[in-house]
């Protein structure tokens, strides 16, 4: 057990469950995009692990772009304020964009991002998220692919952080509230 594992209250999704779910999602995407090439737009940094495993699981050709936005800072509560920290490297007009998210909590970050990307004229735009918190949404966002619905707790691992830590854990776990003084 590592020093990071010791701060985890409970593992809610194991590495095997993540692997199986990604294979399932990739098969659906391959079928849905059989006649189109998909452009995966990963939202850094949380979606980095999911994006790379998803891209490897797809059988059909795809391309990748990354964007970094900030809505959290180092605290565990959303601020609702979104800033672009890194923009896409290229024009996405006419592309079939699939936005790859790690987690949807209030949905504020994503709805802001979608409006921003939509204004760039993609041919289509859909969303895939590995995790969605049940009942937490403040804004309704249509999400085409959802990996797991999870309880409304603060989770880390597999890309998700608390104060930039825990992203490397291979599973998703609930952080002990003593870690953030909650
Ligand atoms: P939203 O705008 O409230 O939907 O928050 C979206 C972003 O907040 C995600 O992309 C994550 O970066 C972060 N976030 C939300 N919930 C969690 C969590 O439980 N653990 C780690 N990061 C989270």
Q: Tell me about the largest β-sheet.
A: 6 strands, mixed
Order of helices and strands: EHEHEEEHEEEE
The small molecules bound here are: inosinic acid
DSSP strand tally: 9
- Calculate the mean pLDDT score and round it: 91
- The secondary-structure class comes to alpha/beta
pLDDT < 50 stretches: none
Strand content: 25-35%
* End-to-end separation: 24 Å
- Separate helix tally: 3
How would you summarize what this structure contains?
The chain is α/β, with parallel strands linked by helices.
Describe this structure in words.
Helix content is 21%, strand content 31%. By secondary structure, the chain is an alpha/beta fold. A 6-stranded mixed sheet has the order 4-3-2-5-6-7, sandwiched between helices. A 3-stranded antiparallel sheet has the order 1-9-8, covered by helices on one side. Helix 1 (15-32) crosses helix 2 (48-57). The mean pLDDT is 91. It binds inosinic acid.
Indicate the topology:
Elements: E1 8-13, H1 15-32, E2 38-44, H2 48-57, E3 62-70, E4 83-86, E5 96-104, H3 108-118, E6 124-133, E7 145-150, E8 155-156, E9 172-175
Helix pairs in contact: 1-2
The chain binds inosinic acid.
List keywords for this structure.
six-stranded mixed sheet, globular, three-stranded antiparallel sheet, 182 residues, alpha/beta
């Amino acid at each position: 057990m590592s020093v990071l594992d010791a701060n985890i209250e409970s593992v809610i999704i194991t590495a095997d469950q993540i692997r199986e779910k990604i294979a399932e999602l990739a098969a659906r995407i391959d079928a849905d995009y059989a006649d189109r090439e998909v452009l995966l737009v990963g939202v850094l940094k949380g979606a980095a692990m999911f994006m790379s495993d998803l891209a490897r699981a797809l059988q059909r050709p795809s391309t990748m772009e990354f964007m970094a936005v900030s809505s959290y800072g180092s605290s565990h509560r959303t601020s609702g304020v979104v800033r672009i920290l890194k923009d896409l490297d290229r024009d996405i007009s006419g592309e079939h964009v699939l936005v790859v998210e790690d987690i949807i909590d209030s949905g504020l970050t994503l709805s802001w991002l979608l409006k921003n990307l939509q204004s760039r004229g993609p041919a289509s735009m859909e969303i895939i998220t590995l995790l969605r918190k049940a009942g937490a949404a403040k804004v309704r966002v249509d999400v085409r692919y959802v990996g797991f619905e999870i309880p409304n707790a603060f989770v880390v691992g597999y890309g998700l952080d608390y104060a930039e830590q825990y992203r490397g854990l291979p599973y998703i776990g609930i952080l002990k509230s003593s870690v953030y003084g909650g």
